[in-house]
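quick one, 306 residues, struct below
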Amino acid sequence: MSNGGVIGVPNAATGPSCVPVNVQTITATGNYVKANAAAPDTVGLVVVAGGGSGGPEGGGGGAGGLVYIACFPIAASTIPVTIGGGGGPGGRDSGCNSVFGDPTNPVTANGGGGGGGSGGPTGRCGLPGGSGGAGSRANPAGSATQGDISGFPGSGFGNAGGGSQPTFPQLGGGGGGAGGGAGPPSCGYGGVGKGSPTIPWMPTCVGTSSFVGGGGGGFRGNPPENTVGGNGGGGTNCNGYGGPQPGHSATANTGGGGAGGGSSFGFGGSGIVVVKENSFSAPAVCPGVWRMGEVLTNVKAGNWTS
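---
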């Protein structure tokens, strides 16, 4: 039989596997408290920082940096959490960091960069951040600063902001998103966020259909004036407006970037932390050599795998 004979040193059953039973969304600074003390000390973790604000007659704000770790070992049953606020109300403001304060390995997501505005040359550049803010009036966009968490390669997500149009009216590009860069300078669209299926357990009630971290749309000033924020909270209702309309703010607790606007600008969205707690499930895997009594016990329990 494929599981081996019955002579030799008996094997131990492999460890129990994890299945999701509880997802906590944390939208304000406080604590994550483990709901089931008997659950494994590993969780699925998403940490999103606050998004940057858009600029007046300028670029969209960059989304807050996003960290996703599929299996993160926690060192305590209660862990402090900081939720970063979004950029505002001065315009061209960067968002604030969000932190999952595990005592062994704190996880920090970097606040999104503010979008460049209509001020002097320095004020027209997009600011760096988790995702970068867009430039305005042919000035540079901000770079992405979100890196990976130590020991977890590929865990950090952020993209640079978009450039503005090189020719008249030279207004705002779109802010960078956690899942992709901004659209070309001619459209000013914000970068897309990140969610399901990349993070398969994200609740659909979080963000825009489970997406968070969308970049803000930029101000255009010539038809068509509407520019779209990135899916994941970039600009309220995923829209940023130019012309005489204000730039709309990002959706709260998405880390989205605010939109650049003609008469004003949009604020960045606050961040969020989402924790998927696991539970024990113990279907045994049976390689190698087993005693006959253990085989019978596993067969009766339905755990014997060929």
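The chain is about 5% helix and 20% strand.
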